[in-house]
Input
Amino acid sequence: MALVKALGGTSDLLPEETRRWQLLETRARQTLELYGYQEIRTPLIEEAAVFARSLGEAAEIVTKQMYLFEDRGGRSVALRPEATASVVRAFIEHGLDKTARMSRFYYLGPMFRAERPQAGRRRQFHQLGVEVFGSASPYQDVEVIALLMRLLESLGLKMKNVMLMLNNLGCLDDRPVMLKKLKEYFLERQSDLCEDCKQRLEVNPLRILDCKNERCRGVAVGSMQWKDWLCHPCQGHFKIVRDTLDQMEIPYAPDPRLVRGLDYYTRTAFEVIYPGLGAQNAVGGGGRYDTLVALLGGAATPAIGFAIGLERVLMAQEADGLTAIDPMEPPQIFIATVSSAQILNGLKLAEQLRANGIAASANLEDRPLKRQIEQAAKANPSGTVLILGEDEVKQGVVMMKSLSTGQQTKEPLSEIVRKIKSGMQ
Ligand code: HAM
Output
């Protein structure tokens, strides 16, 4: 029979790898708490409309990459390709758009996009993201960007190896002007565009700026000049963001072609690139989305956020030479049994130790004592073995053997927890 395997673009995380993830998650949570963010957990599946309406019906993530299916009730359901739309949906559904003055959320979990798998591009991948609701201040943008950089640093990335790209996509009033200018620009150079971009010229010329085709990228250089279309208030917002980043000594590169692949962005947009990662080199990205809450039916609420791709952070960590982590310690205590009649007592003793916060494992097999001790020594050469025999149990004692020194003492069972704990100090 053919072997069943994990789906392409999905991965198993075996315990050693999982430990790297846990470490990453713990560090990230500590940093997020410093900034006053609280965790939100939304479902992995949503009505497809949540994403189509938020990211844009024509966005590639919606048209080509969304895992879409009809559920048993005939509803159109999607596996979440990102979480901003879900968080906004939850924010409105629970009335927070009406009651909360400021909300700062973070999330951490799997996202799903049916992309062609390659290094750094998975079909199930993990994002750590934040969303802030209730502030339109440009200083909020800078605080969010500062958090992104601090998170990457706390996750072990060398800041000299990352680049922050910054843009301002204007407000909804600016959008028609921007699209018109782009259309004019690309119409003049249409013959140099790929077939997909010729289509994009009709549907949404903004998406031409996302095209990976080298020729299209060449054509796009020079297509966007903020001064041509950004309104006065958006220019002012952009200036404060740039000046404040300078003041805070956060280096960035202005990039008028950074439009991001999702339609909900307004004003500030940013991405962090790790050039060493190759084709998929964005470790995180985000921006302001001041119109999305209202678009999904809530009270108009300015908002901003970002998401970091954790697989890519781990790749960048590796590229920066940061891979070694301490393996998990094996349990200090092993309970060996002289005969199989003592297995139940061993099991009970192990439970008693764990209930008192002592990591323990017990022999559960019918096998010779010598073999049990050999295996315990192999698993943890500095561990301790507690040996249970019939006589010992009758007397209410246990033999306690140090695997490092070979020293053996008889200890009352009633005192064993205190004895082990005092030895641990
Ligand atoms: P995004 O740029 O689509 O933004 O994704 C954020 C990050 O997720 C990317 O920079 C990348 O590191 C990672 N990523 C995306 N697709 C894949 C993939 N197929 N495999 C591995 N990693 C991937 C968003 O998702 C927005 N929701 C971010 C945001 C939050 N904007 C405002 N708030």
User: Anything to note?
Assistant: The chain is about 40% helix and 20% strand.
